[in-house]
Amino acid sequence: MEMSHEFTLVLAKSFGLFYLIALSIGITAYAFWPSLGNRFDTAAKSILDDEDGPCR
Amino acid sequence: MTQLKSGERQLAMILSGLVLLAGFLLAAAGHGDPMGVHGWIVVLFAAVILVVAMRALDDPEPTEDRTMSYYDDPTKVGIVIALLWAVVGMGMGVWVAAQLAWPDLRFDAAWSSFGRIRPVHTSGVIFGFGGNALIATSFHVMQRTSRARLAGQVSPWFVLLGFNLFCIVAASGYIMGVTQSKEYAEPEWYADIWLVIVWVVYFILYMRTLARRNEPHIYVANWYYMSFILVVAILHIVNNLAVPASWGGAKSYSLFSGVQDAMTQWWYGHNAVAFFLTTGFLGMLYYFLPKRAERPIYSYRLSILSFWGIVFFYIWVGSHHLHYTALPQWVQTLGMTFSVMLLIPSWASAGNALMTLNGAWGKVRDDATLRFMMVAAVFYGLSTFEGSFMAVRAVNSLSHYTDWTVGHVHAGAMGWVALITFGSIYALTPVLWRKKTMYSWKLVEWHFWLALSGTVIYVFAMWNSGITQGLMWRTYTESGTLAYSFTDTLVAMHPYYIARAAGGALFLAGAVLALYNVVMTIRRVPDHAPHLDYPTNSEAAEPAVPAGE
Known about the structure:
Chain A is an all-alpha fold. Chain A contains two helices and no strands. Chain A has helices at 5-32, 37-46. The longest helix of chain A has 28 residues, at 5-32. The longest helix of chain B has 39 residues, at 486-524. Chain B has two domains: 1-58; 72-242 and 255-524, Cytochrome c oxidase-like, subunit I domain (Cytochrome C Oxidase, Chain A, Up-down Bundle). In chain B, strands 1-2 form a two-stranded antiparallel sheet. Chain B contains 18 helices and two strands. In chain B, helix 7 packs antiparallel against helix 8 and helix 10 (300-314) runs antiparallel to helix 12 (343-357). By secondary structure, chain B is mainly alpha-helical. Chain B has helices at residues 6-29, 34-55, 73-101, 114-146, 155-176, 189-211, 220-239, 258-276, 279-293, 300-314, 329-341, 343-357, 361-366, 368-390, 393-399, 403-432, 441-473, 486-524, and strands spanning 242-244, 252-254. The interface between A and B is medium-sized, with 26 and 43 residues.
């Protein structure tokens, strides 16, 4: 298949459009997924006290 | 060196030996060309490291268990180097600014002409100061947030020193007139290849450290740092695709030509702003601001959303640099639209930072370090708004090619990037060197006000100058000819150029204070054994935190 201007245009307007819409929906869903709230809170708090060395 | 095992010292020796050989090769192939001079610079740089490694070769092996502590030595060195570059880069900036006001300050030498020392200024502050600060803080942040030691003893040094070798080759090249004429991507092909090697090692190091993490979730600051490393690699490689004119000289020809070349360059150029000067520093903001304020980030969910927003939108905006050019109209419109949309995630980040401080304003008032970060977030909000606005084609018709653009860049670079970096450095220095406090809080306070007044003077001077310039260029007489000659506009700019140099000088004075303060903290402030618990080893029976707390 030849990578012509027309071909890339069709690709961008079809696949590209829907893949980016899917990506943004996916990210929003991830960011606001209710059950992930605890994990996010823990992560946000965990940095406040982290000078005690690696856990190994 | 004392922390390195003998095998690692040998590896360091071999690596510096290889770089030394490469330097000789460059010097031999580029004999009689600036490339040859670069070869000798590389030889000298590698020789110094080789000697250091060789002298330490027979030192005793490190005795303490290295897995029990973070590896902070590269971060420490990186912070000091960053501050040295800040003084050099900003000093060059003040000189360049002064040359615009008083052209005699060129002193009639070729190497000191505007076109040569201006890139020394831009590369010095962006790559030298910004880049070293990013590398150093990323080492710090990735270890803390992952609760894991750096994955490697030699590779962090390779990244840090290798990157600085690139910076030195770049800056010395500009002075000799070596440039591929691409803004922010001036270094020639051999320097570019070297940076790719360094950057790939950096990326692998980051991934390997993250893979060792003891936290289930990767903290959002790491996402920002990762995007910085990954995207800068992509941008650098694509924009610097070029064919050397010969193997024996510092001259190459870009693979792209005409409008494609311009588009590739500004796709690179604006994403250098995005992924070098924004996402990496947002990583700093998302780590050091909550840490300093001792409050978790206001909304972690929002930080994730704005991360993806910034990554997704920024990639498309480069074409707003090419309004009213041969670039197809739809590409210009695309860049403009995405630039306007970019305001949403940018303000989400700035708002998130300020909301985190909501309820801790007392701390912001008392603590200049936190104030640095707060003002940085405000300037981030202001300059992203300004940027979106300037990307609109109608506004751009006035602002483009004028000093307004320069003012906008410096609102971002001084107000946002430099202030967040200085704030982070002041927060980091006592922690890193295990000191009770900074050497002088008064000097931090002085630095803050010098930096802020310098930025404000600079930005206002350039706004006035830029808009005046833009309006003068487009003013026509009744008979349809231009009302002002180019020289008329230069005369009108003169007072603003003096003000700009003065603002820059204030900012430079602040950076000098920062370097002095950090060095004195390392040398003079008594050590502080932190009241910390044992690392929470999963096999340890005792709880990490005393039960009473």
